[in-house]
Amino acid sequence: MSIKSYKKNDKTYYEIFVSVRSKVNPKIRKQKRKKGLESKAQALRFEKNLMQECMLEVSRLDGDGYNWGQIVEKWYEYKLTDQFEPIGIETLTDYLAALKKWTYKQWDKSAKHFSRADVKSVLKSIEDADKSKSFQAKMKGTINRVFTWGMEEALIKDVYQSPTIGIKVNRKAERVPTILNRQEISKLMDAARTLESPWYPIWAMALLTGCRNGELFALTWDDIDFLSQSIRVSKSYNKRLRITKSTKAGYWRNIPINSDLKILLLELRSTSATDHVLPRIRDWCQGYQARALRTFCTSIGITPIRFHDLRACFATQLLQNQVAPATVMKICGWKELDTMARYIRLAGIDESGATDSLKILSTTEASKKIISLFGKT
Questions:
Q1: Low-confidence ranges of the chain (pLDDT < 70)
Q2: According to the model, what pLDDT value does residue 239 have?
């Protein structure tokens, strides 16, 4: 609060300024100003009235609680240090950016009044932007996660259910990942080597280890153990943040070195002048590995795939070679069985004969059933 005097046309006037900040939410503040008052007594009366108005408005806003944007920011700050359900910094940053982009219309709205209509509005804007159903579902899930956290932390009061409850997003059919069969893998490797493509050792390493792009980029000679015939994968390079961090799963794993991989590593070792196992191609450093692979595949007449699909090629080849799914999960660094199930389906492992051991009818009864199917008596 303040009362100041000033001169105008040789006459003294008074100006008052009133500011009231919420004790519940410090970011809530109301301010009012009044000028042109002719006496200090008049200024004092106006000051009292403006103070009451500000306090009433702040009290009303206190009842509404934090707005949606503040809930999102508090959730983000909490997740940065959450030890119980941690989220990677890159993923967390993506969540924050997506929420700011798609819920900007609700950003300054009281979270208490974030309604089902608001959720539908967000999903409609995502649909209008030609985003996938999968992305809509992900956005809905993110809003639900943040809102539920706000209720659990008592930051959103007098609300007992997330506004996303009951809203369904019909996902499209699961996209079948593109992979190369054995003939196409051989053609890719033969062509890359014959044409002396600088990508040859990178693609070969991906197909022989199943490593992710960032893991391959971060691989150093300290990770290669020729004595135990294994590669220890314990780190990954993040091109966006330009840092080397832990693997996506958060733990290290070992990958066996077979004869082909050993030959490749020895060739690389004989020409390497750095600590890194794989050469630093400019397009790889700039993140164009997917485009380079698709272009090369198209040029030699095989299925154009993404760089990450080389990992799927590795996994499906192991499964087709009768390697146990649990072993494949361990080598590839997967935690979720759902992920493994997708690759088992993709591998096309033959299910024939799987039900032969099930017997519920006697031999005689079974014969009668079979005969009746062909219309014989």
A1: 1, 24, 59-63, 171-177, 347-377
A2: 84
Q: How many CA atoms, within 13 angstroms, populate the side-chain half-sphere of residue 166? A: 6
Q: What is the pLDDT of residue 61?
A: 67
The confidence score (pLDDT) of residue 243 equals 87
Q: What DSSP letter does each residue of 168-225 carry, written as one string?
A: ---PPPPPPPP---HHHHHHHHHHHHHTT-TTHHHHHHHHHH---HHHHHH-BGGGEE
Per-residue pLDDT at 349: 53
The angle at the Cα of 321, spanning 317 to 324, to the nearest 5 degrees, equals 100
What pLDDT shows up at residue 337? 73
Give the DSSP per-residue string, 264-304. HHHHHHHH--SSBSS---HHHHTT-HHHHHHHHHHHTTS--
Same domain, 229 and 300: yes
Q: Are residues 96 and 30 in the same domain?
A: no
Taking a C-beta distance cutoff of 8 angstroms, is the pair 2, 23 a contact?
Answer: no
CATH number of domain containing 108: 1.10.150
User: Which residue type occupies 325?
Assistant: P
**Cβ contacts of 294 within 8 Å, gap of 6 or more:** 304, 305, 306
3-class DSSP state for residue 352?
coil
In-domain check, residue 366? no
pLDDT at 366: 43
Which pLDDT score is estimated for 176?
Answer: 62
How far, in Å, CA of 91 to CA of 234, rounded? 19
pLDDT at position 247 is: 85
Domain boundary, last residue among 37, 64, 91: 64
Considering the domain architecture, whether residues 232 and 310 belong to the same structural domain is answered as yes
**Which pTM value belongs to this model?**
0.61
Q: Are 76 and 96 in contact (CB under 8 A)?
A: yes
For residue 85, give Cα distances in angstroms to 88, 161, 200, 244, 338: 10, 21, 39, 22, 20
Residue numbers of the domain that contains 118: 68-152
Q: Is 79 found in the same domain as 48?
A: no
Amino acid at 32: K
Give the tokens for residue 31: 């301010």
Residues 274 and 186 in one domain: yes
**pLDDT the model gives residue 352:** 43
Same domain for 234 and 135, yes or no, is no
